[in-house]
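haha ok so turns out i had the wrong file open the whole time. this is the CORRECT one, sorry everyone. sequence first:
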Amino acid sequence: MNNLSCLVLVLTLFTGLTSCNSDKPVKEDKVEIQKETMNFEDKHTYAKPKEAVITHLDWKATVDFETKTITATAAYNIKRAASASKIIFDTKDSLDILAVRIDGKPANFEIGATDKFLGAPLTVELTKEAKQVEIDYKTNPSAAAVQWLSPQQTANKTAPFLFTQSQAILARSWFPIQDGPGIRFTYNAEVTVPKGMIALMSAENPTEKNESGVYTFSMKQPVPAYLMALTIGDVDYKKLGAHTGIYAESSLMEKAAYEFAEMEDMLVAAEKLYGKYQWEVYDMIILPPSFPFGGMENPRLTFATPTIIAGDRSLTALVAHELAHSWSGNLVTNATWDDFWLNEGFTVYFERRIMESLYGKDYAEMLAQLGYQDLLETVDGYMEDGQPKDTHLKLDLNDRNPDDGMSDIAYEKGYFFLRLVENTVGREKFDVFLKDYFQGNAFKVMTTEAFIIHLKANLLDSTTYNSIGADNWIYGEGLPDNLPAPNSNKFELVNAQIEAWKEGTAANTLTVVDWTSHEWLHFIRNLPMGLSFDKMKELDNAFKFTKSGNSEVLAAWFQHTIKNNYVPANQVMKDFLISVGRRKFLTPTYTALKESGKMAMAKEIYKEARPNYHSVSKQTMDELLGF
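then structure:
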């Protein structure tokens, strides 16, 4: 039994969530350490789970595309301390609370002052016998988590579409909830939608439309609020493997089914590494291009952007990443958003192990080296902006939007720290540790401090922990000197072709046969800046970058076209920004326009594109462009 396998005992002391059954005694000093490290305060929720906490949700909703609203009843089973006189929920974006009942009887409630990031608290008075809180409410058309799309904004262009994106603290904008990653609950749902459409959630899902437009759902495993998700559209389903399948609009289904045909292989590879997949089914839905992220790891149903459909399965590392979240994040969850690296650093490490298992070490090293390049750029940016604390793995996001912590620091610095630990103890020993970590802490939450104790107790003694500078990695700024830099033999060959071109070899005679997207991305990223129009034209004629159907390649190419005034790419760049809402591509492209003295162009494009973006992307671009 690992050092934290009784973690839920600590949670019970202040949340009443569950109990711990152990067949082995736990030393008292270990229990005291757990109490100290797990007695966390989440700065991004008004909820007081030590007093009263939700355990299960029954959600009944009707979705109206005409008014762009959801009218619903959320009925929560609760556990509370004997002295608790109230329970507090999070709300946001003028969520209209129509009525509140305690055990079926009208209850007193109050909505507090609104905070820019946190929204407003909904405080409900409890009776001494209170076991269930029922809330009737209606969403606002501008609810931040929800994007309502017209038929024209979809692939088929025949029916409207809806999807939610709740991470980090946007769930509260479409249902009143205790919106902290350290609070988990099960849920059932009944959702009524217009006929001819299908509703899907992060739960047990239907695979075909029905005549009534009423769909029921069950999520039996406890999840935090940010992993509750809803999407509605005219989509079909295709089974890909014993445990995997894909939802997509009919015009995308053939491409999507081909692109993600290896999902089942990824799932099998993941289970071989770190234990049984505990969510029964792993399906994915291809959303319209306005989705702000590459993917979102909603349990049982990953939400994915169509920008990963490249036609050659070259961008499917994102699928491996979202699948890996089924262990790191969904199974063992960061207790607060300050501990976000525990979700993402582990997931990037796991993702690359899956890709190595399926496609070899060279392939995984290419991914790691691209990640290293992103990490260096992110660290440099924070240092130049006077934000060195944002390069810490353990963050301090007090009085800030937790979305600020979702950078390459959590993903890539977290990955390289874990890779350093692996290098220190050996892969075999590290794999045993990780498998035990995921299985022993399943459906629990983790703080950075509790993880450090677990790491010291089960893998690194104090001498080794200190010798690798672990505290400096976790609590220090920048990148430590002992970062295990990746090295890709394939990228060395790419570098040789770049040098040959710089020395006068014609672009159309370079040796580029069978290059993957990763090799092309490395090639473009490492081209010299300040290229002449003729040099840009030579590259474009040889490799058709401006006409590429690969979003990663296009976004990297735009860095050069914008800064080098390569006008032939301007219309393609504009169309890309208008049609694609993925923040990973929007931020560097608009930033390049801004830094190249093309702010007027950036604002003109953004004004047209902004209605197509989800609120997550709008917020970032508004700040960047001063909208």
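Residues 1-37 have pLDDT under 50 and may be disordered.
again sry for the mixup
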